[in-house]
Amino acid sequence: MKRTYLSLFMAVVLLVSLVPAGARGAVGCVYCRPGDTIYAVFTLTEDSERADGVMGRLSYPLDIFSVLPSADLIGLDGINILNRRPAVIAFQVNRFTPPGEYTIEANVAEAMDADGTRHENVRIEPVRVVVESASAKEEAAAEKARLEQLLTEIEAALTEAETARTEAEAERTELQDQNASLQNQNASLQNQNDSLQKQLEALTAEKKETEYRLAEALYASGDYEEAKAQYQNLNGYRDAESKAKSCEEAIAARKAIQPGTYVAFGRYPQTAEGNDQTPIEWLVLEVQGNKALLLSRYGLDAKPYNEKGVDITWEKSTLRGWLNGEFLKKAFSSTEQKAILTTNVDNSRSQGYSEYITSGGNNTQDKIFLLSYAEAHQYFAVEHYSYYQDSTGKYNFTNVSSRVRPTAYAIKNGVIVNRNYQTAEGGSAGWWWLRSLGRTRRNAADISSDGSLSYGGVNDDRGCVRPALWVNLDAISH
Predict the structure, then answer these.
(1) Contact predicate 269/278, CB 8 Å
(2) pLDDT at site 170
(3) Are 4 and 53 in contact (CB under 8 A)?
(4) CA-CA distances (angstroms) from residue 100 to 34, 129, 159, 175, 370?
(5) 309 in the Ramachandran plot: left (φ > 0), alpha (ψ -120 to 50) or beta?
(6) What is the pLDDT of residues 107-130, one digit of tens each?
């Protein structure tokens, strides 16, 4: 008999369609589930080449497997391997559990040759079978379906998350762009803020300086009350505090300037030598707000009303020309001249004495002028000399306030004094010119040394010049 070596032959398992493909490569076993048909291939080993045929009996769990009819079956549980070819046995997997791994064995019942020789050491290789329970499989299938559904949901969630992430990234990018834009805007606004801050500081400084200059202007204009308030509002800016105190002093000085008081303003020679510049003292006749009417305390010089003894009015007189020309420039600085107000001088009939020529000619615009009779009467109670004559024909001149004492410089220049009449403060009195006319146009009114109203020739050069003017009090109260 030809020798055939079948040792370690691998079982070939033919599975029905329900057996998973992954199980088909298993060596010596097959994975199945109840209801499947399996084919177990039994092979001989060891000394099988010595026998021409082998009979054996199957050993398997009857509650798991059922043997299907086969040509190789001997009885219900035996096999017959002839001519050294494998025996293929068909089994039905029963429809019940328990699942597990089972071994189907074939025990050698008899091994012999054709001549009846028996052989030992012949063995049939067993077959291992794994059975899965239906419930486990279904649970696995359900778990698989659940996991597949979960995977689908996860994939959907991933897609949604990716979409959300993409949108968030786009939004983040947009926000980054917006943030960059806002940062640029913020930087621009910061630059604007810095620029505006500098402008604010500059404007604040300019405002302070402007307010300071306004205070200066108010002070220069003599509005000391307003200037003081303005300086105080500056809260210590520059020298505002000391300037406010100066305003207080000026306010106090102005309050001290009242009718009947004396102030110094301008300079004019008053000594016999005439080489001095002595401050001119002025009698305050009237105060109106920040201006005052002043009359020189003394007779300052000797001048005729007019150089020629002709018909004349105040408008055309040489004394008016001298006062508003040479005297103005000599007695006052340019700053002081600006402080002297231009006055509308009234030369109407109301300014003259009723028994004299009352029309004084045209009104004039003067810096310096002389008092009219009406003004002398108003401020000094001047009356015509006849007023002082009693019933016996004697004169009793009692008005001392209207008398004037000439300076040494005026006396040297020709002013005459009358020792019979003394001024209120002592000293011999002289006579002084008024701008009103006398009994004729060649006469001008005057206040005689006794203090009464009189008149004299316009070309008489022995009378005192006693100038009058309206002045801004700020110029003399600093």
Answers:
(1) yes
(2) 86
(3) no
(4) 11, 8, 42, 63, 151
(5) beta
(6) 777 777 767 777 777 777 777 777
Range 275-280, long-range pairs (CB < 8 A, 24+ positions) = 280/331
Structure tokens at 15: 């599975």
Q: pTM of the predicted model, to two decimals? A: 0.55
What distance in Å separates the CA atoms of residue 143 and residue 136, rounded to the nearest whole number? Answer: 10
CA distances in angstroms from 159 to 162, 168, 279, listed in the order given? 5, 14, 108
Of residues 208, 237, 210, 240, the one with CA closest to residue 227? 240
Give the other-Cβ count within 10 Å of 25's Cβ.
Answer: 7
What CATH number has the domain spanning 21-132? 2.60.40.680
CA distance 444 to 204: 63
Which tokens is 215 given?
A: 């205070």
Q: What's the pLDDT score for residue 46?
A: 56
Structure tokens at 465: 């010049």
**What CA–CA distance (Å, rounded) separates 89 from 68?**
8
Domain boundaries, the chain: 21-132, 257-475
pLDDT given for residue 261 in this prediction: 94
CA distances from residue 214 to 178, 207, 240, 252, 476 in whole angstroms, order as listed: 50, 10, 12, 21, 21
Alpha helices in 222-351 (DSSP H): 224-233, 240-256, 318-322, 328-331, 334-339
pLDDT of the residue at 1: 34
Q: How do residues 133-154 score in pLDDT, each as one tens digit? A: 656 556 666 667 777 787 788 8
Determine if residue 289 is left, alpha or beta; phi over 0 gives left, psi from -120 to 50 gives alpha, anything else beta: left
Q: In the predicted model, what is the mean pLDDT of residues 209-234?
A: 87
CB 49 within 8 A of CB 3: yes
What per-residue string of b and e applies to 230-247 under the rule 16 or more CB within 10 Å gives b?
bbeebeebeebeebbebb
